Structure formats: structure tokens, C-alpha cells
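hi! just following up on the protien thing from before. the input was this:
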Amino acid sequence: MSLDQSHIPTRSGAAVISINFNLIIQIVLFVCLVILLNRWLFQPVLRILEAREEQIEGANREAARIAAEIDEKLATYEAHLAAFREEARAMRTSIKEEAKAQEEQLLEEARQEAQRIVAEGRAQLEAETQKARQQLAKEAEKIADEIVFQILERQLS
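and the predicted 3d structure came back as:
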């Protein structure tokens, strides 16, 4: 039977655990490995992950800033567009009103011109009629004088 050295009986009868030298070496090697891995693997990886997380957060902040700027510019653009549309509508209304006023003015001027032309035509027609009547009266008087002269000449002859 082999003698197990890990359990050595004591006076009270309880077993005492003896520490093996290999265990101490393994613990020292494990601690050294943890220190080396921490220094050359874990810390660089953590720094890379932290830097990457900072880059992502920075990119997210920049994206949020750009989105806010775009929203602001879009709101400004929409406000300007609405103002331009309102201005264009007001201009269209104003132009229509001006055109209607000009149309009414031109129609009134045309009516007045037509009335003036008709009045001038009537006056001219009246004047020509009067002149024709006077000429006709003179002609009638001349003809009447000639007829009377011819009748008197026939009676005298």
C-alpha cells in the first residue's frame, strides 16, 4: 500500500493537508501567466475594445449632430418654401386683380371710344344730311326756276 502524504494524522486525529512543492510552482506559474496575459493580451485587447467603443460613440454623436443639422436645414428649407409659395400665391392674386382692372379699364375705354365714334358718325351723318338737304333745296329751287323760266318762255312765245 502506498502512503498518501497529503493526509498526515495529527494528535487530535484530524488530517492536516501538506502542501506539495509542485502545487506552489503551479500557483507561481499561474500567477506569472495571468500577469503576462494581462499585460500583453488582456490590456491591449481591452484598449482596442475601448478605442473601438469610443469611435462608435463618436460616430454616433457625429451622426446625431448631422441628423439634427439636416433636420434644422430641412425645417428652414420647408419654411422658406412655404413663404415662397405664399408669396407666389399673393403675386398671382395681385396680377389677376391688376389684369382684371386693366381689362375693365380697356373695356370702358373701348366703350367710350365706340360711343365717341358713333356720336361722330351721327354728327357727320347729320351734317351730311343737312348739307344734302341744302343742296337738294338749292337744286330744287334751281330746277323750279328753270321750269318756271321754261314755262314762261313757252307762254311768251
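The mean pLDDT is 88.
The two ends are 206 Å apart (CA to CA).
cheers
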